[in-house]
Design brief:
This protein is mainly α. About 75% of the residues lie in helices and about 0% in strands.
Length: about 210
């Protein structure tokens, strides 16, 4: 239901109602919040994240919800009082990326750390820094092959690979294209694999 967050949310809510003691109830709750957010219903999303944070403070879903709330503007808890306004003065996006970097450097809870890596990777990709984004996103799968964040990380990684291959083709950096393929082909989605394969074939022909 990726393209229908309303249906996904209803399915998750139904599952939670049927099995309130499900071992992944905390993650399900966070995903319900994510779907509200994708629908543009931020008020409902923040309410669900807040409930997940309160009910599962040490669970993956509670930690994910804590970062989601921070991402939506509640940045104050991640900076000391004398630093928060300086951070926000540099822009909410920059402050949010700083927050994630702080989490990574602190070696925090593994789930929180993975989420921070995901957000740094996607932020780098949005800024066109795809080679760095690839490293951050790939590291999530390498270190945590069963991570609950892979459904978000892998599509972002695939898109970053497509963008980086396109850039290298424009620069006629054929060796970089074959290296990207050798190191990362397994991370490409089926939809992204075909155009990248065309670029790789061109690179191999140019390299002889």
């Amino acid at each position: 239901y990726w393209n229908r967050p309303d249906l996904s949310r209803r399915f998750l809510m139904h599952a939670l109602n049927l099995m309130p003691d499900h071992p992944k109830a905390d993650v399900i709750m966070a995903r319900i919040g994510d779907n509200y957010r994708r629908e543009g219903r931020d008020r409902e999303a923040m309410a669900v994240y807040g409930a997940a944070k309160r009910n599962y403070p040490d669970g993956d879903g509670g930690l994910i919800s804590q970062v989601r709330l921070a991402e939506m503007g509640a940045l104050h808890s991640f900076f000391s009082p004398d630093k928060v306004f300086d951070a926000l003065a540099r822009g909410t996006r920059q402050a949010t990326v700083e927050m994630y970097n702080n989490i990574v450097e602190s070696g925090s809870n593994p789930t929180l750390l993975q989420l921070a890596q995901l957000k740094i990777g996607t932020a780098l990709a949005e800024d066109g820094e795809n080679s760095e984004a690839i490293k951050w996103l790939r590291d999530i799968e390498i270190k945590n092959p069963r991570s609950t964040l892979l459904p978000e990380a892998l599509p972002a990684l695939s898109r970053a690979l497509v963008e980086e291959v396109a850039l290298r083709e424009e620069l006629e950096d054929w060796k970089a294209i074959t290296d990207l393929w050798a190191d990362n082909s397994s991370y490409l989605s089926e939809a992204d694999r075909t155009p990248v394969m065309r670029s790789v074939a061109e690179a191999q022909a140019r390299l002889g």
